[in-house]
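Hey, resending since the last one bounced:
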Amino acid sequence: MDESSPLAAQQILHLQRANARLQAQNEQLLAELLLSEELKELKRVVFGQKCERFVPDTPPNQLRLPLESELKEPAVPLKQIKS
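The structure tokens again:
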């Protein structure tokens, strides 16, 4: 039993080191996965399809407001306002 004891201790030490290395590697891969998912989400937010869009045509049942540039003369003459 004396001969197998040092060998078993060396194997245990080797397995513990391998286990520690694999745990560190696993943590690194998990961090990379989380960063990758975060990047995907950010790309979707920045470059993804937007819900809001510009619709230039007004619905046919909506009345139009006259803009100042469309008015040719004031509705009320200026002389009437001053008096």
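The CA atoms of residues 59 and 65 lie 13 Å apart.

Sorry for the duplicate.
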